[in-house]
Amino acid sequence: MAQCAQSVQEFIQDSFVPMVAVLCSEDAERVTRKNNLSFPELLRPFCRLPSEGHLRDPNNQVVVVKGLRISVTGVNTRPPNSGEVRKVLSQAVSACQPPEGLPANVITAGDYDLNISDRSVKASVPWYSDWKETLTQLSSSKYYTATTPWFEAYRENFLQSMPATDHEFLNHYLACMLVVSSREAVPTEQFLKLSQEQHRIQHSGEYTHPKWFIPNTLKYYVLLHDISDGDEQRADSVYEDMKQRYGTQGCYLLKINSRTDAAGPDEQMPDPWSQYLQKTNLHSPCEETMSNNVLENNISSEMDGFDSSDGVLESHPLKLDQPADTGFPGNPSEAVNSADMAKMQKQGVVTPVAAPTPHGACLTLNDHDRIRQFIQEFTFRGLLPHIEKNIRQLNDQLVSRKGLSRSLFSATKKWFGGGKVPEKSIAELKNTAGLLYPPEAPELQIRKMADLCFLVQHYELAYSCYHTAKKDFLSDQAMLYAAGALEMAAVSAFLQSGAPRPYPAHYMETAIQTYRDVCKNMVLAERCALLSAEVLKSQTKYSDAATLLIKMTSEDSDLRSALLLEQAAHCFINMRSPMVRKFAFHMILSGHRYSKAGQKRHALRCYCQAMQVYKGKGWTLAEDHINFTIGRQSFTLRQPENAVAAFRHILINDSKQTASQQSAFLREYLYVYKSVSQPSSEGSLPQLPLPCLHSAQTRVFFGHERRLAEGEKQAATHVWLDHAYDRDQAQLWTELEEQVVAVANRGSVPISFQPTQYCLSSHTDNLRYPLAVVEEPIFVEVVFRNPLKVPLALSDLSLLWKFTAKDFSGPQGGTLGETITNEKEAAAGKATALNDLISTEVIPEFTLGPEETKVARLKLLPHKTGDLRVLGVVYNLGTREEDNSTSEGSQLMFVRGRQDLEIQGPRLNMTKEEKTSVRHGPDRRLDPVITPPMPLLEVFFINFPSSLLCGEIRKAWVEFVNVSAVPLAGLRVASTHPEFFTFGSAASDLTPNTPTAAEHCSAYKTMATPPSDATVTLVSPATFGVNGGDRPVVVDIPLTGGVLGPGEALQIPLWLRGPDREGVHEIHFLFYYESLEKNAKLSHRVLRHTSFICASRSLSVKATACRSNTLPGRGRREEREEERSGNMLVFVDVENINTSEAGVREFHIVQVSSSSRQWRLHKCINPAEDKDSKLASRERGKLCFRATRCRTQEATSGALEKYTFADLNLGNEQIVSSTTPCADFFFRRGPPSEPRKGGAFTAGALMRRQSLTPASCADETMTSIVRKCSEVELDIIVLWKAYVVEDNKQLILEGQLHVALQTIDKEACSLSQKEEAQEMVLLKFKPDLPPPVSRPTLEQLSHLIKTCLHYPESYDHPFPQKSLCMVPVTLTLSNCSLAQVDVIIDLRHKTTSPESLEVHGSFTWLGQTQFKLQLRPQEVHRLSLKACFFQAGVYNLGTPRVFAKLAQSGTMCETSQQSAMPALIIINSV
Q1: Of 27, 30, 303, 1040, which sits with the fewest C-beta atoms within 10 Å of its C-beta?
Q2: What is the largest CA-CA distance in the chain?
């Protein structure tokens, strides 16, 4: 049970004390009224004796009486009825609340620290976050007070309200004080009158109350002398007369009122009466009703403690059926006073509650001592000897009867009745209890003796007598008497010193069961249970005590049940193994009964204490019930903050309640919240629990809302909140921006560079303050989630912000003004009041469905520079009801509040200290810096296609618009696919100038030229923005005057080429621009655009370069020069792989061009008559061209960096491939291959390299030389037209495909082959070996020498005349390399097998058959040979074998060179 202020022994002794009546004369009462006290009230603080008393028992043994207290009350005290008792008990419990400000009592029960005090309200409800820390501090406190003082107040008042009954004598009067004033004319006569009045009251039989212990009641005569107003000598003389008349032990002279003047303001006298008079005492005269009435009006205005069910006036269970007007004695004056008081109470006349009335104003400390001495004299010299005498008399009577046989005595009683009334049924025992035994019955005499012994603490003799009486009562079936004897026998056994026998708990159980079930008297059963529970608790039998208390709960009294359930709950947590959940459950039950009894504060306290156990255990329904009750009780008790917090807790958790229940919770919360917020409407807005705000998912976007396409214009996609975050895409944009920033800053990225972030979220880097531009909007996307199953209606939703104006034009940007916030304006519903500073968007309605997650986009438009901080959102919260309620009624249920956006930054994990602790960095996405104005670019694409054929050329237009008030400069664009587009070269012809004029024109520059030899043009790559062989990633966009002014627009053409691979291609553009005025915060801005192009198949081009066998011969000089410089055959194989899904009917190959620094196409040697090749679907064609080396290579050294474009048109129209857009896309084609990076070697360069290169590099040099022999750097450009039928119209599409020839006899294709998946490479922990020295392959070495045989195709010889035919043959050797080559020519046949004879024919070479030569770089050498034939026939002269090696290769063996084509000769016989 709960901790009590008294021990069990003290509690029981104070529950049963000797009762003394007081009968005062009017003058004596007047004397005490000077101190605002009646005579019993005057004595009450001094009724506990500080010293021990002594008496002797019948065996002449001394009995020591310790700490005896007597109860002094007026003889005219009216017995209370049931209704009054209930009312007073309720008021006593209500008035006794946990004291504020005292340390809390903390009980550690298992894993719980349970706070049992007033602070438990704070410690248990959800809003008290750090309650455990508080409990830990308080648990070590030295202070420890009663944990449930209201229970002790109830118990004390309950025991005082026990009526005097006939079956026990403990609360019967033992003595009567007759008090007379010394100012009486004849005090002795007044004493005689009072004595006769007492005798009449006791023996006349007119009154049922009061009840007297024994017929011979002790009369104690008290002469009350008022020192301030009286003759002291006369008082002494009267007292002497009294001693003669009544004896020295039967009278006393009490002198009071020593003080004549009022106490000074600085003088403070003790007031020991206040603590007694403030308690509700039912055993006080009627005049005390006024003080009780004052107490009743001090009860809290919430009517806490008022119980409608307990307020019904019922008759007391123990009260006899007697008329109310004769139930108690009283003189006429007292009756009048009582009537007046009753009338005043009826009319509601109440003494105003002013300063507390002082008591004992006329008494000094000496008077206090005199009163104390008087009580001691009365007790020791009057009361205790009287009790001792009566114990002896009763004992003698009982001993004298012991001679009779007990059985005979019982039989005699049964035969003759013994004065008893005939037997009645058990049901009548309750109402006829006083008539079962006459007062002189021997059983009652035993009970009287037992009660007397009990009152003077002689517990051993008392137990013996109770035990004896118990047997007699049980044998007589007098159950009420037997239960009383059992009860007191158990208490006496417990109180015996030394504990000779154990506590008979079964006595108490029997007594309680008898009182409750047989006698139907819950009052006596309750008293018995209270006593037994205290005894069991003192013996640590908490389980038995809890069981007993729970059994005593019933429906007839909610207050009693609540108190007993609470005590049972305390029993559960005081067990050796605390039963915490049982404690919580019974506290809930107790709180419920408290609530029914009208004890709202105690109900709230019980629920809060129980919440400590249920909180956080996953019992959501139990938590909801407790919080709901806490909220309601707090609101009833005018604690709206606690009520709001409790209801808030119900709503913020994921509730498992039904939708209707959640709706009820929400309406209750809104009603409570609205009543709270009304008085404090001007203050700051409180936090709302709904809807759930996911702060971490908040996104912030800086810039204008995205424009949609207008007609043919397609706006740049840029960034918007609808775009999902992609980490790879973000990295790609960052790399593009780094590239363009590096170009803008002369090749290096500044140290302070930070990639531009337009949309900030939890995925982005938010460690730095984001930059926003003045007069440009800021969008904040907030994610709301409705956790309830009912819809929520939000209105007037806007952002809360704080802004500090700053001027960034200065060197450091000083603060211009104070920090301004819109919290007050938003609280008053005027969120747009500060629109001149920052325009705040307000969303009028925002509805969330049941369990819906929804985003709200709120806009701010700053008009000044400075530091902005977004604090949170403010809105009205309400419910959207399904019924047809009026708009006004539904509007009343809207409440205004806020939620703060608090975002936790990423966890820091860099240093050791950060790794070992949990630290988070800042997240500044909501703290933008508003910078000065910057230019703002918008880009529109006109006629921009969504699908293209592979290699198709399309001309579009792009429009740049500066929509800001600041001029724009430094416009550049970077792309992930620079080969996809071109703006043309600076020298390109930009006509026609508008998209409409260019609608039906070709994208190429064309000339009317009939088919002929190639037209040659020399072009420098720098003209098209290509430097160093790399394709340009960043392109400068030409602006008029380099500036795009405010509001100006610029349209320029844009050529597009379809990707070489089919499929959907994602192409990114990043437009970069700057301001003319330097901005300290923002150096540049970017605009992003992503386009998707669907590429369809067109043509597949394959090309092969073959070495021509022709060597310089006789002919024109130009041809000889071309042949001397070398020539090749180029075979171009074109296939239509289009599947006609794009409506393409056929392709026309209109032109084949070449571009190279060394080679050019010379002429078309295709035998077809129709030069314009047409290819329908899945058709294929082959073209053959002759290529020669560029003549300009030897002319100027600077021409090495220039490309030669040669155009061979197959129709009557030539496309100038050296201009935009053909040359642009050629230079922007895929990444250059490795051979392109090295320039052409000359002999001089080789010699210089050999002289500078160490010997270890000789092999690499040789490899390079050998590779050059088989290399071809020739790009073929196939230009085509496609005829497409679309919407019954024929369109002509045009395009170009590129094929890069790199090696002789190796096929090249326009479609890039798919790369094979890379195999997984094992990790190596050893250092890699140096790469092996590269050596030329056999295939490369076989191309060092080109051979050619010159001979007559047919030869006539007269074999009959001359058997041998000798034919001259010339073998021409050409060194294809740039180094000296050693050559060996072997004319001998390889084998002499029959098969070889069949192939070669039977002929032989005459003369020298093996030659060894050394050829200089690119030298041509001729050998004259003779072939000898024996008969006519067809012979193959291609039998000579040529071996070659580089002269510097040292020990390397000669490699066989590729043999020439078959050289057939016809020998005719004539």
Answers
A1: 1040
A2: 205
